[in-house]
Amino acid sequence: MKQNEQKSMTEWKQVSSEEIITTKRIEPTRIEELPSFTLAGISTVTTNETEFSKDGKIGKLFEQFHAQNISKKLGVNLQEDGHYSCYFNYEQGDAGLYEIMVSVHVQEASKLPNLDMINTFTVPAAKYAVFVTERGPIIEMVQCAWADIWQWSQQPGNNRAFTGDFEYYSKDINPEDGQAEIYISIK
Questions:
Q1: pLDDT given at position 80
Q2: Dihedral in degrees, nearest 10, Cα atoms 114, 43, 141, 105
Q3: pLDDT at residue number 110
Q4: 3-state DSSP call for residue 5?
Q5: Does the first or last residue of the chain, that is N or C, have fewer Cβ atoms within 10 Å of its Cβ?
Q6: Under a CB-based contact definition with an 8 Å cutoff, are residues 129 and 158 in contact?
């Protein structure tokens, strides 16, 4: 997974009643087909509505993943360095409940240590629109990229599959000046 690619942007014009405003619209850096692979980590069920409130769960899930050093507990089974946040089990696309797992890529779920808190998910083989965040404070950059991706997904011809979307973070990511890749499954 390439960490240093810049996301591509295209210009488009939005016409208001008073003037023409030029804004930027995010486009995928690339389209990529990936085989299925297995992730192991900790998960929770949430909604976008919950995440925009004071009751958001995703930040707490990341804190728990790092505080409990989950990747080290699964270390002998790691397929690659870095970690993922994977979104799956969507009930109503991006409008309803979905599960998020902060995780690592593992070789085989059957060889995992028997840890009560660990869940697995096999990301299905799919075609992905890949977006690379801007470089900066990673939480802010990922949130901005998702806002752009939601707008991108509303454009004609951009059809999300909702089979399993994920963010990839390299093992040496700098939380204050980093980049992540966001993979959106498409039809």
A1: 75
A2: 30
A3: 66
A4: coil
A5: C
A6: yes
